[in-house]
Amino acid sequence: MPTFTAPDGTRLAYRVHGNGSPIICLPGGPTDAGYLGELGGLGAHRRLIFPDHRGTGRSALPDDPASYRCDRLVDDVEALRAHLGLDRTDLLAHSAGTNLATQYAARHPERVGRLLLIGPSTRALGVAITGGTRRALALLRRDEPWFPAAFAALDALIAGAGGDGEALAPFFHGRWDAQAREFHAAALPANAEAVAGFAAEGAFDPAATRTALTALTAPVLLLTGGFDLNSPPVAAAACAELFPDATLVVQPGAGHYPWRDDPGGFVAAVEAFLERTRPGHASRPHARLPAEDS
After folding, report:
1. 58 in a structural domain
2. What is 101-138 written as a DSSP string?
3. What's the CA gap between 180 and 184, in Å, rounded?
4. How confident is the model at residue 60 (pLDDT cuts 50, 70, 90)?
5. Which residue of 67, 187, 236, 274 is 20 to 30 Å from 28, comparing CA positions?
6. How confident is the model at residue 14 (pLDDT cuts 50, 70, 90)?
7. Domain containing 211 — which CATH number?
């Protein structure tokens, strides 16, 4: 597995899959990029570059645990871009990784060709998600056999009573079958210190990030699943309003990992965005929401 060196000397690993124009793909968690797989087959069209966040996967542990903070990880992304010799890069991120991607775009807008936010987190942008929004979305799954226990856990969490976080897992998948259970168990972050440090005090400055992003000229895709309790479609739509050129796509029947729930639909949506926004093609803001989420 190839490596590069971060500005503070930490050795970071990445893997490459596929052919074509490169896209740096940032995982969430924070965890290693293994759970992204091959993004549903996107590597058949693009060269996918998957870095492991510091302290995860095959990347080294940093000397300074404070460097796990999201805003400080921007320097790791910039170091990878420079290592790859890319003047500008398309940047795809998932879940918590979208906080890093948006902060990178705010700090280095001239280095971003296109920005793709999958199952976007809203923390870096300061978009609130209410308990009512999550409840309404959860109720779309009321006929599922696992729903009663999962909904009770959600209610307890919203009420501040804690509850069984594992019981919520089915809400993050379009189908809660044996494969989803196996994936869920394998995808959990392994470095608790990295998880805690990622959102440490000072990691996010939503007002500054939002202001900086008003000058971003790169086209942005926000893609979320119609069932994604972590990134509800209405929250993704609110985030889309913060970018000058945003495309919002809600993938029907998908959860927080849309490339797994419907690989063909996911790749088609991403490719449609990339083709529509390639140099020489007009790019226009666009939104597509399913009727039940309108």
Report:
1. yes
2. HHHHHHH-GGGEEEEEEES---GGGT----HHHHHHHH
3. 6
4. very high
5. 274
6. very high
7. 3.40.50.1820
The predicted structure's pLDDT at residue 90: 98
The DSSP output letter for 291 is G
Tell me, what's the pLDDT at 294? 24
- Asked, for residue 161, whether it belongs to a domain, the answer is no
Residue with tokens 């856990």: 153
Buried b (16+ CB within 10 A) or exposed e, 93-128: bbbbbbbbbbbbbbbbeebbbbbbbbbbbbbbbebe
SS (H, E, C) 20-71: CCEEEEECCCCCCHHHHCCHHHHHHCCEEEEECCCCCCCCCCCCCHHHHCHH
DSSP 2: -
Distance CA 142, CA 219 (A): 36
Write b or e for each residue in 170-184: b if 16 or more Cβ atoms lie within 10 A of its Cβ, otherwise e: bbbbbebeeebeebb
Place of tokens 């597995």: 1
Which secondary structure element, helix H or strand E, spans residue 182, and what is its range? helix 178-187
List all residues 6 or more positions away from 135 whose beta carbon is below 8 Å from its beta carbon: 154, 155, 158
- AA identity, residue 235: A
Q: Is the peptide bond preceding residue 30 cis, with omega within 30 degrees of 0?
A: yes
Both structure tokens of 77: 């992304």
User: Given pLDDT bands bounded at 50, 70 and 90, which one contains residue 91?
Assistant: very high
Res. 266: pLDDT tops 90: yes
Number of domains present in the structure of the chain: 1
86 burial class (0-12, 13-18, 19+ CB within 10 angstroms)? middle
Phi-psi region of 9 (alpha: psi -120 to 50; beta: other; left: phi over 0): left
> What is the pairing mode between strands 11-17 and 3-5?
antiparallel
